[in-house]
Design brief:
Distance between the termini: 34 Å
Bound molecules: nicotinamide-adenine-dinucleotide
CATH architecture of the largest domain: 3-Layer(aba) Sandwich
Radius of gyration: 18 Å
Helix content: 40-55%
Structural class: alpha/beta
CATH class of the largest domain: Alpha Beta
Strand order of the largest sheet: 3-2-1-4-5-6-7
Order of helices and strands: HEHEHEHEHEHEHHHE
Length: about 270
Protein backbone atom coordinates (compact mmCIF):
# COMPACT_ATOMS: atom_id res chain seq x y z
CA UNK A 1 0.00 0.00 0.00
CA UNK A 2 1.49 3.35 -0.98
CA UNK A 3 -1.31 5.58 0.28
CA UNK A 4 -2.41 6.59 -3.22
CA UNK A 5 -5.60 4.59 -2.86
CA UNK A 6 -6.62 6.62 0.22
CA UNK A 7 -5.99 10.01 -1.31
CA UNK A 8 -6.14 10.02 -5.10
CA UNK A 9 -6.84 6.62 -6.67
CA UNK A 10 -5.37 7.94 -9.90
CA UNK A 11 -2.13 8.96 -8.16
CA UNK A 12 1.12 7.10 -8.83
CA UNK A 13 3.34 8.30 -5.99
CA UNK A 14 6.19 5.88 -5.23
CA UNK A 15 5.36 3.71 -8.25
CA UNK A 16 8.17 2.59 -10.54
CA UNK A 17 7.31 2.36 -14.24
CA UNK A 18 9.02 1.17 -17.40
CA UNK A 19 7.66 2.68 -20.62
CA UNK A 20 8.88 1.37 -23.99
CA UNK A 21 8.65 3.54 -27.07
CA UNK A 22 9.11 6.52 -24.76
CA UNK A 23 11.10 8.48 -27.34
CA UNK A 24 8.12 9.62 -29.38
CA UNK A 25 4.39 10.03 -29.69
CA UNK A 26 2.17 8.01 -27.36
CA UNK A 27 5.11 6.55 -25.42
CA UNK A 28 6.67 9.95 -24.74
CA UNK A 29 3.34 11.39 -23.66
CA UNK A 30 2.67 8.39 -21.41
CA UNK A 31 6.07 8.76 -19.74
CA UNK A 32 5.28 12.42 -19.04
CA UNK A 33 1.77 11.74 -17.77
CA UNK A 34 2.88 8.91 -15.45
CA UNK A 35 5.69 11.08 -14.08
CA UNK A 36 3.30 13.99 -13.54
CA UNK A 37 1.09 11.58 -11.56
CA UNK A 38 4.04 10.82 -9.26
CA UNK A 39 5.74 7.78 -10.79
CA UNK A 40 9.45 7.24 -11.34
CA UNK A 41 9.70 6.43 -15.05
CA UNK A 42 12.31 4.52 -17.03
CA UNK A 43 11.99 5.91 -20.55
CA UNK A 44 13.10 3.14 -22.92
CA UNK A 45 13.46 3.44 -26.68
CA UNK A 46 15.59 2.05 -29.49
CA UNK A 47 16.29 5.70 -30.32
CA UNK A 48 18.58 6.51 -27.39
CA UNK A 49 18.71 10.24 -28.08
CA UNK A 50 14.92 10.44 -28.16
CA UNK A 51 14.64 8.49 -24.91
CA UNK A 52 17.13 10.87 -23.32
CA UNK A 53 15.16 13.88 -24.52
CA UNK A 54 12.00 12.50 -22.93
CA UNK A 55 13.71 11.74 -19.62
CA UNK A 56 15.47 15.11 -19.50
CA UNK A 57 12.18 16.84 -20.21
CA UNK A 58 10.66 15.12 -17.19
CA UNK A 59 13.55 15.75 -14.81
CA UNK A 60 14.88 13.82 -11.83
CA UNK A 61 11.97 11.38 -11.65
CA UNK A 62 12.93 9.81 -14.97
CA UNK A 63 15.89 8.06 -16.54
CA UNK A 64 16.53 7.09 -20.15
CA UNK A 65 17.40 3.64 -21.40
CA UNK A 66 18.50 2.57 -24.87
CA UNK A 67 16.47 -0.54 -25.56
CA UNK A 68 15.59 -2.54 -28.65
CA UNK A 69 12.54 -4.54 -27.57
CA UNK A 70 13.41 -7.27 -30.07
CA UNK A 71 16.55 -8.00 -28.00
CA UNK A 72 15.11 -10.43 -25.45
CA UNK A 73 18.18 -10.44 -23.21
CA UNK A 74 18.29 -6.65 -23.16
CA UNK A 75 14.59 -6.43 -22.30
CA UNK A 76 15.03 -8.83 -19.39
CA UNK A 77 18.16 -7.00 -18.21
CA UNK A 78 16.43 -3.60 -18.22
CA UNK A 79 13.36 -4.81 -16.37
CA UNK A 80 15.29 -6.88 -13.84
CA UNK A 81 17.82 -4.11 -13.22
CA UNK A 82 15.07 -1.53 -12.78
CA UNK A 83 13.36 -3.69 -10.15
CA UNK A 84 16.68 -4.33 -8.39
CA UNK A 85 17.88 -0.71 -8.44
CA UNK A 86 14.56 0.92 -7.58
CA UNK A 87 13.51 -1.82 -5.16
CA UNK A 88 10.21 -2.42 -6.95
CA UNK A 89 8.50 -2.60 -10.33
CA UNK A 90 4.84 -1.53 -10.38
CA UNK A 91 4.09 -0.57 -13.96
CA UNK A 92 5.06 -1.73 -17.45
CA UNK A 93 3.72 0.08 -20.51
CA UNK A 94 4.57 -1.64 -23.79
CA UNK A 95 4.19 1.16 -26.32
CA UNK A 96 7.09 0.64 -28.77
CA UNK A 97 5.76 -0.20 -32.20
CA UNK A 98 6.33 -0.03 -35.94
CA UNK A 99 4.16 -0.33 -39.02
CA UNK A 100 4.84 -1.67 -42.51
CA UNK A 101 2.23 -1.43 -45.23
CA UNK A 102 1.48 -3.59 -48.25
CA UNK A 103 -1.18 -5.84 -49.72
CA UNK A 104 -1.37 -9.33 -48.24
CA UNK A 105 -0.38 -10.82 -51.61
CA UNK A 106 2.72 -8.62 -51.79
CA UNK A 107 4.02 -8.46 -48.21
CA UNK A 108 7.66 -9.58 -48.03
CA UNK A 109 8.29 -12.10 -45.28
CA UNK A 110 10.94 -9.78 -43.80
CA UNK A 111 8.31 -7.08 -43.28
CA UNK A 112 5.98 -9.50 -41.55
CA UNK A 113 8.82 -10.72 -39.33
CA UNK A 114 9.95 -7.18 -38.49
CA UNK A 115 6.49 -6.07 -37.42
CA UNK A 116 5.79 -9.22 -35.40
CA UNK A 117 9.23 -9.00 -33.76
CA UNK A 118 8.71 -5.46 -32.45
CA UNK A 119 4.97 -5.26 -31.86
CA UNK A 120 4.21 -8.76 -30.63
CA UNK A 121 7.42 -10.43 -29.52
CA UNK A 122 8.82 -7.23 -28.01
CA UNK A 123 5.64 -6.93 -25.96
CA UNK A 124 5.84 -10.61 -25.06
CA UNK A 125 9.44 -10.40 -23.84
CA UNK A 126 8.69 -7.44 -21.60
CA UNK A 127 5.43 -8.97 -20.33
CA UNK A 128 7.23 -12.17 -19.42
CA UNK A 129 10.08 -10.40 -17.61
CA UNK A 130 7.78 -8.02 -15.72
CA UNK A 131 5.08 -10.56 -14.89
CA UNK A 132 7.63 -12.82 -13.22
CA UNK A 133 8.84 -9.98 -10.99
CA UNK A 134 5.38 -8.55 -10.29
CA UNK A 135 3.94 -12.00 -9.53
CA UNK A 136 6.67 -12.65 -7.00
CA UNK A 137 6.66 -9.13 -5.59
CA UNK A 138 3.12 -8.31 -4.64
CA UNK A 139 1.48 -7.21 -7.84
CA UNK A 140 1.65 -4.63 -10.56
CA UNK A 141 -0.02 -3.38 -13.70
CA UNK A 142 0.88 -3.96 -17.33
CA UNK A 143 -0.60 -2.03 -20.24
CA UNK A 144 0.03 -3.21 -23.80
CA UNK A 145 -0.68 -1.28 -26.97
CA UNK A 146 -3.03 -2.79 -29.51
CA UNK A 147 -4.71 -0.67 -32.18
CA UNK A 148 -8.03 0.18 -33.74
CA UNK A 149 -6.69 -1.96 -36.58
CA UNK A 150 -7.94 -5.01 -34.65
CA UNK A 151 -11.54 -3.79 -34.96
CA UNK A 152 -11.68 -3.42 -38.73
CA UNK A 153 -10.14 -5.02 -41.81
CA UNK A 154 -8.33 -2.09 -43.36
CA UNK A 155 -6.46 -2.80 -46.59
CA UNK A 156 -2.67 -3.00 -46.74
CA UNK A 157 -1.89 -3.26 -43.02
CA UNK A 158 -2.22 -7.00 -42.46
CA UNK A 159 1.18 -7.42 -40.75
CA UNK A 160 0.42 -4.62 -38.33
CA UNK A 161 -3.16 -5.80 -37.66
CA UNK A 162 -2.03 -9.36 -37.02
CA UNK A 163 0.68 -8.19 -34.63
CA UNK A 164 -1.87 -6.14 -32.68
CA UNK A 165 -4.42 -8.97 -32.63
CA UNK A 166 -1.67 -11.10 -31.10
CA UNK A 167 -1.08 -8.40 -28.48
CA UNK A 168 -4.78 -8.50 -27.60
CA UNK A 169 -4.71 -12.27 -27.12
CA UNK A 170 -1.45 -12.09 -25.14
CA UNK A 171 -3.13 -9.52 -22.88
CA UNK A 172 -6.11 -11.81 -22.28
CA UNK A 173 -4.02 -14.91 -21.62
CA UNK A 174 -1.56 -13.20 -19.29
CA UNK A 175 -4.36 -11.48 -17.37
CA UNK A 176 -6.00 -14.86 -16.80
CA UNK A 177 -2.77 -16.29 -15.43
CA UNK A 178 -1.43 -13.58 -13.14
CA UNK A 179 -4.53 -12.02 -11.58
CA UNK A 180 -4.16 -14.34 -8.59
CA UNK A 181 -0.82 -12.65 -7.86
CA UNK A 182 -2.30 -9.16 -7.91
CA UNK A 183 -1.04 -8.39 -11.39
CA UNK A 184 -3.44 -6.68 -13.81
CA UNK A 185 -2.89 -6.79 -17.57
CA UNK A 186 -4.83 -4.57 -19.96
CA UNK A 187 -4.36 -2.97 -23.35
CA UNK A 188 -5.27 0.23 -25.10
CA UNK A 189 -6.47 0.08 -28.71
CA UNK A 190 -6.04 3.65 -29.93
CA UNK A 191 -7.79 5.08 -32.93
CA UNK A 192 -5.87 7.40 -35.23
CA UNK A 193 -3.45 9.55 -33.21
CA UNK A 194 -1.28 12.39 -34.49
CA UNK A 195 2.26 11.07 -34.06
CA UNK A 196 5.36 10.46 -36.15
CA UNK A 197 3.96 7.04 -37.09
CA UNK A 198 0.86 8.50 -38.70
CA UNK A 199 2.65 11.62 -39.93
CA UNK A 200 5.08 9.64 -42.06
CA UNK A 201 2.88 10.17 -45.15
CA UNK A 202 3.28 13.94 -44.90
CA UNK A 203 7.02 14.34 -44.47
CA UNK A 204 8.72 17.43 -45.87
CA UNK A 205 12.28 17.22 -47.27
CA UNK A 206 13.69 18.49 -43.94
CA UNK A 207 12.02 15.61 -42.07
CA UNK A 208 9.32 17.72 -40.45
CA UNK A 209 5.63 17.02 -41.00
CA UNK A 210 3.58 19.05 -43.48
CA UNK A 211 0.79 19.86 -41.05
CA UNK A 212 -1.45 21.45 -43.72
CA UNK A 213 -1.29 18.28 -45.83
CA UNK A 214 -1.95 16.17 -42.77
CA UNK A 215 -4.94 18.29 -41.72
CA UNK A 216 -6.41 18.01 -45.23
CA UNK A 217 -5.99 14.23 -45.26
CA UNK A 218 -7.59 13.98 -41.83
CA UNK A 219 -10.87 15.61 -42.91
CA UNK A 220 -12.63 12.42 -44.09
CA UNK A 221 -11.16 10.52 -41.14
CA UNK A 222 -12.61 12.99 -38.67
CA UNK A 223 -16.06 12.32 -40.12
CA UNK A 224 -15.70 8.67 -39.06
CA UNK A 225 -15.64 9.77 -35.42
CA UNK A 226 -18.90 10.77 -33.69
CA UNK A 227 -16.74 13.31 -31.86
CA UNK A 228 -15.23 14.56 -35.12
CA UNK A 229 -11.80 14.02 -33.60
CA UNK A 230 -8.37 12.71 -34.41
CA UNK A 231 -6.49 11.72 -31.25
CA UNK A 232 -3.51 13.43 -29.69
CA UNK A 233 -0.91 11.35 -27.78
CA UNK A 234 -2.27 12.63 -24.45
CA UNK A 235 -5.65 11.12 -25.22
CA UNK A 236 -4.04 7.69 -25.04
CA UNK A 237 -1.65 8.52 -22.20
CA UNK A 238 -4.53 9.46 -19.90
CA UNK A 239 -6.23 6.14 -20.65
CA UNK A 240 -2.98 4.35 -19.77
CA UNK A 241 -2.67 6.35 -16.58
CA UNK A 242 -6.15 5.21 -15.54
CA UNK A 243 -5.39 1.57 -16.29
CA UNK A 244 -2.15 1.51 -14.29
CA UNK A 245 -3.65 3.33 -11.30
CA UNK A 246 -5.57 1.98 -8.32
CA UNK A 247 -8.70 3.50 -9.84
CA UNK A 248 -8.62 0.49 -12.20
CA UNK A 249 -8.03 -2.11 -9.50
CA UNK A 250 -11.10 -4.13 -10.66
CA UNK A 251 -10.04 -3.99 -14.32
CA UNK A 252 -7.98 -6.69 -15.98
CA UNK A 253 -7.92 -8.47 -19.32
CA UNK A 254 -9.66 -5.51 -20.94
CA UNK A 255 -9.05 -3.61 -24.15
CA UNK A 256 -9.74 0.11 -23.66
CA UNK A 257 -10.48 1.91 -26.90
CA UNK A 258 -9.66 5.63 -26.92
CA UNK A 259 -10.69 6.02 -30.57
CA UNK A 260 -13.12 8.91 -30.83
CA UNK A 261 -15.96 6.39 -31.13
CA UNK A 262 -14.83 5.20 -34.57
CA UNK A 263 -15.39 1.57 -33.57
CA UNK A 264 -17.79 0.40 -30.86
CA UNK A 265 -17.36 -3.35 -30.46
CA UNK A 266 -19.32 -5.09 -27.69
N1 LIG B 1 -0.46 6.75 -33.86
C1 LIG B 1 -1.53 6.01 -34.03
O1 LIG B 1 -2.50 6.40 -34.71
C2 LIG B 1 -1.62 4.68 -33.36
C3 LIG B 1 -2.86 4.02 -33.38
C4 LIG B 1 -2.98 2.79 -32.76
C5 LIG B 1 -1.89 2.21 -32.13
N2 LIG B 1 -0.70 2.87 -32.13
C6 LIG B 1 0.42 2.22 -31.45
O2 LIG B 1 0.90 3.08 -30.45
C7 LIG B 1 2.28 2.81 -30.23
C8 LIG B 1 3.06 4.12 -30.33
O3 LIG B 1 2.90 4.62 -31.63
P1 LIG B 1 3.17 6.15 -32.01
O4 LIG B 1 2.11 6.54 -32.94
O5 LIG B 1 3.42 6.93 -30.79
O6 LIG B 1 4.49 5.96 -32.88
P2 LIG B 1 5.88 6.72 -32.91
O7 LIG B 1 6.53 6.26 -34.16
O8 LIG B 1 5.70 8.17 -32.67
O9 LIG B 1 6.65 6.11 -31.64
C9 LIG B 1 7.06 4.78 -31.61
C10 LIG B 1 8.31 4.67 -30.77
O10 LIG B 1 8.68 3.30 -30.69
C11 LIG B 1 10.08 3.23 -30.83
N3 LIG B 1 10.49 1.92 -31.30
C12 LIG B 1 10.33 1.39 -32.53
N4 LIG B 1 10.90 0.19 -32.60
C13 LIG B 1 11.43 -0.06 -31.39
C14 LIG B 1 12.17 -1.13 -30.83
N5 LIG B 1 12.50 -2.20 -31.58
N6 LIG B 1 12.54 -1.07 -29.54
C15 LIG B 1 12.24 0.02 -28.80
N7 LIG B 1 11.57 1.08 -29.27
C16 LIG B 1 11.18 1.04 -30.55
C17 LIG B 1 10.42 4.33 -31.83
O11 LIG B 1 11.81 4.68 -31.79
C18 LIG B 1 9.49 5.43 -31.39
O12 LIG B 1 10.10 6.28 -30.44
C19 LIG B 1 2.69 1.78 -31.27
O13 LIG B 1 2.64 0.49 -30.68
C20 LIG B 1 1.61 1.91 -32.32
O14 LIG B 1 1.44 0.72 -33.05
C21 LIG B 1 -0.54 4.09 -32.73
Amino acid sequence: MTGNELTDPFGLNERVAVVTGAGSGIGRSTARVLAAAGAFVVCADVNAAAATATAEGIGKTAVAAALDVTDRAAVFALIENTAAEQGRLDILCNIAGIIRTGKVVDVPEEDLDAVLDVNFKGTFHACQAAARIMSAGGGGSIVNTASGAVDTAQPEIMSYSVSKAAVVQLTHNLAAEVGRYGVRVNAVAPGLVRTAMTGRHYLLPDGSIDEAARAAAEKPLRRMSPLGMIGEPEDIAYAVRYLVSDAARFVTGQILRPNGGVAMPW
